[in-house]
Amino acid sequence: MGLGNLTRAGVLAAVAECQQLGRETFRRQYGFGRATTYELLVDGSRFDSKAIAGVAHLYSVGSLLSAEDFSGGARTVAHRLRALGFTVEDGSAVTDGRQGDPQVVLQPRGGARDRGPQNFAKSVRRGVPIADIEDALGEQAHVLAALYPDGIARLWGSTPTTQVNNEKAKALRNRRVGDDVLFYAENHFIARARILHLFDSLPVAREVWGTDEDSATWEHIMALGEVEEFTTPLLAAPVLARLNVPAPLRSLTLRSDEDYRRTAELLPGRRRNTSSEPPHPLPAASAPLTAKDLLDRIGSLHTHRRPGSDSPSRHQPLSLLWAISRITAGKPRLAPWSSFRSEVGQLLADFGLPDSKVTPEYPFWHLQGSGLWEVHGVPSDAGPMPQVGTFNTVQPVAGLTRASAELLQNPLTRLEAVVKLCSTYLDHVDQRALLGRVGLAGYATADGLVDGDEDITVPETDHEERATGPATRREATVSRLVRDAAIANRVKELHGHACQVCDTRLQYKRRPYSEAAHIRGLGSPHDGPDELQNLLCLCPNHHVLFDGLEIYVDVDGIVKQTHGGAPLGRLRRHDDHQIDEAYLRYHRTLCELDMLTKK
Questions:
Q1: Residue 456: what pLDDT?
Q2: How far from each other are the two terminal CA atoms of the chain, in whole angstroms?
Q3: Phi, psi for residue 561 in degrees, rounded to 5
Q4: Angle at CA 321, nearest 5°, toward 316 and 323?
Q5: Rounded to an integer, what distance in angstroms lies between the CA atom of residue 63 and that of residue 67?
Q6: What span, in angstroms and rounded, lies between the C-alpha atoms of 47 and 90?
Q7: DSSP letter for each residue of 195-224
Q8: Is the distance from CB of 580 to CB of 533 less than 8 angstroms?
């Protein structure tokens, strides 16, 4: 697997996720650094090319490419993204494609003689309307329009130097997109910004700042973002000393990312809202999706009903169950059309309504109406229901929204979602077989599936002779969950080895015997914690019944039979053994699912 497997739809899905998380969080989550050379431009926004390509690979073929997997460097990434029809910009003179931290550019603002305060207020604090300098911008016009959707550019420039090895020449030569800029005035640092773009333009500089007394202009231009003026100017001397720069600062100066990291503790933390943000108010953010919202939306899917039938179509419910199973298995929340068509198509054939057509394209597209599903990569002119041929050609990706997938990481929410799907839409389905098919067989018991716990069987023999000698043995490597014996002993001691259901105290080999039962099982898909609040002290009989979902504890603390609801008595409690009610709720929900699957 490599960059050749990237699809346009996968890139668009990665871009959408980056927009939701923000560039820094997106990079940190997937282990990438800031782009130092090539940036991807999509709808006026900029993205780190390698990070986008790595996550796009996850959604294109199912495996994430890490920063170390790009053996061809950033240039190869840029070539592939361009081949898919995207715009990729070379943002600096650095060409080796290294992922690095920002350097720091120390930028004198200039005094009144140089019109420093006026120029800073005009082109950095207030910004320059792009429309006012459009004639001078030439080919840079589309770049600035993409960088500043609000139409206001934040610019600063430097006059040329005739020397080649002084501090200013080195800074002009080696600064790059992504570097931070610290503005210096009157022995203090007064503001900070980040370089979004670098270009040289005499016409633009003259249009924005005019010329100085020597008829020179600030033609080496930085386009800035994340502009932040410090509430209290920062004394520069300690920072300059740590950077080994003489005070006062007299020239444009560049220091390395390593040097910059050493000054971090001396600089104020970044504010979230800075002057580089659009001046007009942003629309109010929608309320975050809650677990209740998710369950309500699952319970109110717009399912199709065939004429003369009261049964809702199973296409969307089966597709959501498939998507939930992917979350349980740790797979990517989004999958390409080819995978969806193959896997969900077979589910529809085996568990859909009798005589219904197998049309996976319908849930793939129409589940967007639930608010829990997203599709990327379908052309905007494909119509209200794109043709299967379109899907086959562009290979879009689809799946649960990020918010939905995050909620379903919670085992209780995930279980409740499965119950909601089964009880609302899948009454007449062999639900036990269905859950087994999609990888959710662990819901059949309270302890779930644990690697290596299944018995090893051998084929049956045809002869009727009696076996002689010891039973056959077979070597096997198993993986078992590690349980804390001290916690198990603690719950037994607190209850004096008496079952919390029936008060039975057993003796085995002249010693008391009881068993510590996990309420929310440790095995998959329950993934419960090994802690005292998740344990009960039970006799072997009630341990088997509890794990087998034959008994549960209701909201009032009464132990009841799952099938029939007959009460067995109140669960005995101990003041030093506080049971987490959320675990009991999980077990009750599991019993509810068991009743559904055994109808």
A1: 43
A2: 45
A3: -75, 135
A4: 95
A5: 13
A6: 12
A7: EEEEEE-HHHHHHHH---TTS----EEEEE
A8: yes
Q: How far apart are alpha carbons 548 and 128 in whole angstroms?
A: 70
Answer whether residue 476 shows pLDDT above 60.
Answer: no
- Tell me the H-state helices in 352-466: 361-366, 388-394, 402-407, 411-425, 431-437
Helices 411-425 and 291-298, interaxial angle, to 10°? 20
133 with 214: CB under 8 angstroms? no
Closest C-alpha to 500, from 509, 492, 489, 508: 492
pLDDT score recorded for residue 465: 56
- What secondary structure letter does DSSP report for 125? I
Residue 388, both tokens: 């299967």
116-159 pLDDT, tens digit per residue, is: 999 999 999 999 999 999 999 987 887 888 788 888 999 999 99
d(CA 521, CA 591) in angstroms, rounded, equals 13
CB atoms within 10 A of CB 490: 17
Q: What SS3 state is found at 103?
A: coil
In whole angstroms, how large is the CA radius of gyration of the chain?
32
- Of 171-180, 242-251, 269-278, where does mean pLDDT reach its minimum? 269-278
Enter the DSSP assignment of 124: I
Q: Is residue 1 over pLDDT 80? A: no
If phi > 0 it is left, if psi is from -120 to 50 it is alpha, else beta; for residue 110 that is left
Closest C-alpha among 318, 336, 323, 326 to residue 375: 336
Tens of pLDDT, residue by residue over 241-266, are: 999 999 999 999 999 999 999 999 99
The token pair that represents 349 in the structure block: 């054939």
Q: Which residues contact residue 121 at a Cβ distance below 8 angstroms, ignoring those fewer than 6 apart?
A: none
| Residue type at position 443 | Y
Query: What single letter denotes the amino acid at residue 128?
Result: V
- Residue 592 CA to residue 424 CA, distance in Å, equals 13
Q: With bands split at pLDDT 50, 70 and 90, how would you rate the model's confidence at 41?
A: confident
Q: How many helices (H) and strands (E) does the chain have?
A: 22, 21
The alpha carbon dihedral of 555, 557, 558, 564 has a sign of positive
Interval 342-391: pLDDT, tens: 999 999 999 999 888 999 999 999 999 999 999 999 988 888 899 999 99
- What does each C-alpha distance from 49 to 40, 197, 318 come to in angstroms? 5, 15, 36
Question: What is the structure's pLDDT at 309?
Answer: 65
C-alpha 392/C-alpha 340 separation (Å) is: 11
How far is C-alpha 165 from the geometric centre of its chain's CA atoms?
Answer: 45
Residue type, 475: E
CB 377 within 8 A of CB 12: yes
| Mean pLDDT, rounded, for 159-163 | 90
Angle subtended by helix axes 337-351 and 315-328, to nearest 10: 120
